[in-house]
Amino acid sequence: MDLNNLQLDGGDSGVSSLQHIHLNDKSIRIGRQTGIFNENENATSVCIGYEVCQASNNISNNTYIGYQAGQHSSSNDKNNVFIGCKSGNKNDNGSDNVFIGHEAGSANRSGDGNVFVGDKCGMLNANGLNNVFLGRLSGMNNTNGENNVFVGSSAGTFNRDGHSNVFMGPSSGEFNSVGNLNVFMGSESGNQNTNGSHNVFCGSMAGKQNEDGRNNTFVGHQSGQFNKSGDQNCIIGYQAGQYNYNGSDNVFIGIQTGLKNAHGNMNVFIGTETGKHSISSSNNVFIGNNCGFSNEIGFNNVYIGAECGANSSSSTNNIFIGWKAGHQGTRASLVILHALDPHEIDIKERLSTTEENVYSDALNITFRNMYGTFQIHTLPNVPFTLHEYMFQNEIEETRSNYTSVVDEHGSSGSTKSFLLF
Hints:
The protein is mainly β. The protein has no helices and 27 strands. The N and C termini lie far apart (113 Å).
């Protein structure tokens, strides 16, 4: 017997591994009925355990350790490492794999270049290539998915054909089935994703309920948590956009920004709790802490400044600029509060307006190219001067044909109503 070969076998029902081992091979076989059909005289494999590598007839450079590890390996399997009970059990033609753990990669047929480490990790993988699954049940149901990296207990457990995904964290991407090119990082991030692709979810439970949403970026604990089918959202911050359901094309940046937005589209909310109670509002721009805080269904608004339009729930077509500008606004208004030094405001190019409101602490207000009915509300005991201009044929005319209906000063400030024509 060649000294390069070592075999120890207790025998089983009179069957000895000695019957099927060439004397000059370089293999190590230890265990009952282990490697009994290996007939390659140049084999260089290590098989240790009961019924290990039973069916192989042409294997090289493999290491199989554990009960029925690589049991059905055959036909040119090369460079595999299977360690654990039934690890790589049905491998057939698969090469360059590392399966470590109870039933890790047990159903692998022809998949190559995989690394599965953990109990039942990649258990049902059949033809998937170049996957890395680390953690108990990670990638367990993967069949044809390729180029995936799943790290953490139950990460990508139900992935079937999804490819090129990176799931890191316990239960991250657990129910992903055919979603591709996703990056989920954090416990339960993207947990319910099934078909969604091209998403980036970073943070515990970020995008947890996403099913079909595509091209989303959620960063922060519970950011976009309940998003189901919303697409093209950029949501960054603790619980930002948490209850977004099918809203799309939104940008939410800040703590609890756009928290309750469910169906609103094409919004930009920036600041802590900005647009927090938005439900179905769309086409809004809110910038500043608590800006548009109570807006629920309003649309086409621009609010800039802390607490700007904070108590407005349904305002539409507004421009609020400054701290607490339009704080109580509930109707269509042009509102500007707290003008900068020298306390002058120049309002241009707003045409054919009716019953618009202007709130300001400016001492001088200039209107250009405007007509309609207006009201100006100033801060308490603040006098102001009104200038009104009309442009006709590019020649500026100074006009004073407005009617002052109310000119009162009191605790609520001064109000002037006038008609421009």
